[in-house]
Amino acid sequence: MCGILGVVAKSPVNQLLYDGLLVLQHRGQDAAGIVTSDGGVFHMHKGNGLVADVFRTRNMRNLYGNIGIGHVRYPTAGNAFSAAEAQPFYVNSPFGIVLGHNGNLTNADQLRQDLFRQDLRHINTSSDSEVLLNVLAHELASGTSNHQIDPETIFKAVAGVHRRCRGAYAVVAMISGYGLLAFRDPHGIRPLVVGKNETAEGTEYLVASESVALDVLGYKLMRDIEPGEAILIDENGQFHSQQCASKTSLNPCIFEFVYLARPDSVIDGISVYETRLWMGVSLAEKIRRQLDKMDIDVVIPIPDTSRPSALQLANQLGVPYREGFIKNRYIGRTFIMPGQALRKKSVRQKLNAIGIEFQGKNVLLVDDSIVRGTTSKQIVQMAREAGARKVYFASAAPPVRFPNVYGIDMPTRAELLATGRSDEGIAREIGADAVIYQDLDALVSAVRESRSSIECFDTSCFDGKYITGDITPEYLAEIENARSNPKAPGTGLDSRQLDLNLNEDD
Question: Which of 116, 126, 271, 467 suits a disulfide with 492, CB 3.0-4.6 Å?
Fold first, then answer.
């Protein structure tokens, strides 16, 4: 996943974009970038690391202009450690375009070949975002006459992108001398919202991955950008929008609500926080049916994402809720550590148990999900060492059994804890007395509590059903082969991502 921002304002936007990226930092901690436009001239600064590390005062001073886009990167394809793959990306023809992308193209390899052989365009990195940028640039060049562009020309180019690209993509881009463009894939998998701010000088517009960025920056949420829709805000602040896909459906990624998004965001009309409360309710109903087998003294969340679900679960069961782990926020993310031994050490440094909450008690630990299970096993062991008599482990999400190909980098099926194991086998593997998973239909119902009109969600990591219809066993095998072989041809994936684990705390 990644976080994207785009703004057209009446005053300099460098500080606004910086502040917005800080709000979206949870969506990507590996790289950050900002591009602004001043009189059609682009000013760019990007690099590896957190937002606060990438940008210094001297960098900010050089980001002139009232229009800009920003990006925070969490790599799902390409070289995770290459500064060259930090976004936004730039091409100089036609007109000059910069682009930031959240998602993953599932036909990126074929597009690379087409761009090279047919469109005569060179791709300089292994990032599918650069592929998407060049597809957009080619479609825009093909539809332009007399070196003039207008909203109709730009929307026609986006329609060409939709015809050629497969997978998930939410995009912000700037066209030099014209304005800000944003669009979303026809399946609406990755989120994208637009808001506005009324000033004395006129209306300002902000596009972002999550509504929380609008809230913090003082913008009012207008709406979600619809699947297949493109919006265009020119340099004069004129707002244009058009549906650019012939066939669309809304299929939000359900993992946004489980883990990825901030709880104070609203995505496709659904409150993330409220959804996580409902997850706790449905999980409590399942646990209640098994209470004759379990005597629970206390419910303890694994910080931080699982707190709303754990609190509601405890309330439903009538069991005390306690904070049992303290999180050190100054330790690096465990899943990018170079080896398993170091990963385990880092987990111990990141979380510390409050012994009094465990001693002599039957404890129910609640996490948002279980992916590889490395950290789950460590946490269960920590609970036992703190004096817990029995340790039960509940997941607010169903078992993760399949890869996600739409912008969330998960381990291979062989590395996923739930692959080939029953709940009892998983409990043995992590050392728990029992493991309780959310049922998939219950999870979908929990998310629908806020907006029942959404017919379908992307639940592929739980059920293996890929809504774009183009994911074959051969495609999945190629991805897994790339993880086993450094720089495997045709994928751009790097074996150093083998340690990538979805959850910062798992």
Answer: 126
| Rounded-to-integer distance, Cα 134 and Cα 381, Å | 50
Q: Residue 238 CB: number of other CB atoms within 10 A?
A: 13
Do the Cβ atoms of 205 and 179 come closer than 8 Å?
Answer: no
Q: How far is CA 171 from the centre of its chain?
A: 13
How many CB atoms within 10 Å of residue 212?
Answer: 22
- Give the Cα separation of 203 and 435 in Å (integer): 52
Q: For 145-169, write each residue's pLDDT tens digit.
A: 777 889 999 999 999 999 999 999 9
How far apart are alpha carbons 157 and 141 in whole angstroms?
8
Beta bridge partners of 202: 199
| Nearest to 251, CA basis, from 400, 87, 460, 77 | 460
Quick: pLDDT tens for 459-495: 999 999 999 999 999 998 888 887 666 454 343 333 3
Tokens of residue 477, six digits: 């095998």
Nearest to 136 by CA among 112, 104, 162: 162
Q: Is 253 a catalytic residue?
A: no
pTM: 0.90
Q: How far apart are CA 36 and CA 40, in angstroms?
A: 9
Structure tokens at 309: 């679900």
d(CA 23, CA 219): 14
Exactly one of 2, 165, 244, 461 is catalytic; name it.
2
- Say if CB 293 and CB 323 are below 8 A apart: no
Residue 401: phi and psi, rounded to 5, are -120, -10
Tokens of 296: 């629970």
8 Å CB contact between 254 and 458: yes
Q: Cα(first)–Cα(last) distance of the chain, in Å?
A: 17
Burial of 360 (0-12, 13-18, 19+ CB in 10 A): exposed
The Cα 106–Cα 90 span in angstroms is 22
